[in-house]
Amino acid sequence: MAQRPVEFEDFLPLMADKLGDDGLMEELCNGFRLLMDPRRRLITFDSLKRNAGLLGLDGLRDDELRAMLREGDTDGDGALNQWEFCVLMVRLSPQLMEAPRRLMDQATREAFGPGFMS
């Protein structure tokens, strides 16, 4: 039986389990530095396009790369700072947030009763 390829959504939780919170953050920071424009200290369209091959993204079109930047760009400057990059990486991996979400739901039910979230 053929195994399916590992997707990014699967990979980040595996890294988190293996590296722990601090190790995961360090790896995300390393990924940011790999992709950023060293002069601006931001991930720009040009730096993402230039370095996309390092992440296996060299087949993406320009409009797809721009869409990636737009998705994470919360301050509207057209680039990603380190915080925006890390938030985007976590958002792209919904499994990573599943355990905290369950804990929050449980705490809410315990504090406000089971009918609160219905």
Automatic annotation (TrEMBL):
Keyword tags: Calcium
Pfam families named in the record: EF-hand_8 (PF13833)
Annotated GO MF terms: calcium ion binding
Top-level taxonomic group: Eukaryota
Domain EF-hand: 60-95
Matches recorded under InterPro entries: EF-hand-dom_pair (IPR011992), EF_Hand_1_Ca_BS (IPR018247), EF_hand_dom (IPR002048), KIC/PBP1/KRP1 (IPR044205)
SUPFAM superfamilies registered for this protein in UniProt: EF-hand
PANTHER family: CALCIUM-BINDING PROTEIN KIC (PTHR47319), OS06G0683400 PROTEIN (PTHR47319:SF6)
Name of the molecule in the record: EF-hand domain-containing protein
The organism's taxonomic lineage, starting at the top: Eukaryota, Viridiplantae, Streptophyta, Embryophyta, Tracheophyta
